[in-house]
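Batch manifest, entry 17 of 40.
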Amino acid sequence: MNRKSILSIYRQLLREVHKQYTLQNNNPYWKLELIKIFRQNQNVNDKELLVKSNQDAFDLLSFLKSNRRYSELMAQSNKLYGLTEQQRIEKTANRVGLKTPSDQDILLPFESMPS
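Output type: structure tokens
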């Protein structure tokens, strides 16, 4: 692989890591780790190791892109994707015309019971 394609994969990896991890979690760990790995391998001269490292980087890039795309498609096609269990229950109940009881509704019958 030539230097341009290696740098292209590196930049794409940085963008994907930034979108999926750094931006969402406000945590630069994965970005810094990626930079560290690429800097460690920038002076490697072993042809086989270079090819293997570049293939690993390309595989990682493909995985990250596919994973992001899968999440986007699931969010578009399944409105309940990514919600907490309580939110899913509420939305499912609303879909069939029911309302989930609130904490206050649950306590009211016990408060009105004679002692």
